[in-house]
C-alpha cells in the first residue's frame, strides 16, 4: 500500500522476478555494471554483467496471404457469435473451440546443416532445429480473408542488452527496463530467416494440403519495401527489419556461467550470485542461451534445480548448527 517494508532473511534470499525484473532489482541493489548502478544512484556492491546477455526468438509473420474462401480463415470479429458461445457452454463444441494456430513445425535450415561449425563439430548442436514455422488462419486484418505464416529464428546468435529506465518519473517506474535485442545483427541470421520464408511459401503455394483452399494464394507486397524487387533477398531483408518482434521467450539477463572466472556470468551453476553470499537467482534470466523451443519447460527445470540446491544448503546449515 505504498509503505516501504524491510525484511531480513535468516538463511538465503531467492530472487525470482523473471528475465526483465530480476536484473533491475539487482542493479537497484548495487549489483551490476558500474555504469548502470551509478545511473540509479546506488552504491556499487559487486560489479557483474547483469543485463548483458539478453536473448530471444526474433519472430515475424509473412502476411497478408489472401485466400478465396473465408471459411478457411478465423478471427474474433467474424467467427464469435452469441450462438457460438451458447453452443460452447452447452456442448463444448463450435467455433469457440477453434485454434487460430493451425499447424506448427520445427526444422533445421540448410545454412545450419552446411555450416563449417556443423561439419567440423563432433556434436549435433548445429543440426538441431533452428527454425519454427507456424501457420495461422488469421492474417491480421479482421475484414479480410487472409491467413499468415509465422517464422521464428529459434537458435539466434545475436545477444542484446537490458538497461534501467533512468528517465522514469518515479521510483516505481525504474522497474521498467529498456531492451535492446540487436535482432538480426549478423548476416547469417537473415539467411536462416529467409530460408524459413521460402519454406513457408513453398508449402502454401505447392502442397496438396493447401490446394483445397481454392485458387493460388495472393501475397501482397509490403509498402515500406517497394523499393526492392518483390520477393527478392533484399526485399525480404527489408520486410524482416520492419516486422520482427519478440517471440516472448527472453532469457539471459542474469546469465549462468562456470564461476567467478567466467566474464559473462552473473550466477554460478548452483544459481548463486557470484561474489554475494546467500543470494540466488532462480528464473529464466539465468539461461546462458535461449533454448530452441518455448521457455516454459526449461524454466520449470531451473525451478526444480534451484529447489534442490536450496534444500542441500538448508540441510548443511541445519547439520552445522546441530554440531
From TrEMBL:
Transmembrane segments: none annotated. Coiled coil: none annotated. GO terms for molecular function: flavin adenine dinucleotide binding; oxidoreductase activity, acting on CH-OH group of donors. Residues 18-32 form the Glucose-methanol-choline oxidoreductase N-terminal domain. This is Glucose-methanol-choline oxidoreductase N-terminal domain-containing protein.
